[in-house]
Specification:
The chain has about 120 residues and is α+β, with helices and mostly antiparallel strands. Helices cover about 35% and strands about 30% of the residues.
């Protein structure tokens, strides 16, 4: 596990990630799969927060030694996008239906219970 901070190490990891042919897939909340397209090798990257500090872990050799690797940098970039998407979805107002959607929407037709009968005669 490595603390994620801004600085020279992160800048270097970002540069290595840009140069590599990496594909980042979201596996779950704060869980990512990073695959190198050239080699086909895939690594698991996870993020956590403790006491306001951000941490990342990667299953690659560098990540297991506690180093900030290119896989963590690539997944962190995707994580920022995912967090922004979630925030936008939570604050977005619902869009009104279009005219076409309103024309094809089912019409509400309430069904009433049958009229009561008194000695066989409808009231």
């Amino acid at each position: 596990m490595v603390e994620i901070t801004h600085g020279a190490k992160m800048d270097a990891a970002i540069q290595r990630a840009k140069e590599a042919r990496l594909v980042v897939r979201v596996e779950g909340f704060r869980e990512y799969s990073v695959e190198n397209r050239q080699t086909g090798v895939r690594y698991a990257v996870t993020f956590s927060v403790a006491a306001g500090r951000k941490f990342g872990a990667c299953s690659c050799a560098a990540g297991e030694r506690g180093m900030l690797c290119k896989h963590i940098a690539a997944a962190a970039a995707r994580h920022l996008v995912a967090a922004a998407e979630i925030a936008a979805a939570q604050t977005a107002a619902p869009t009104p239906p279009t005219a076409r959607e309103m024309d094809t929407a089912p019409v509400f037709k309430p069904t009433l219970p049958p009229a009561p009968k008194f000695r066989g005669v409808e009231l």
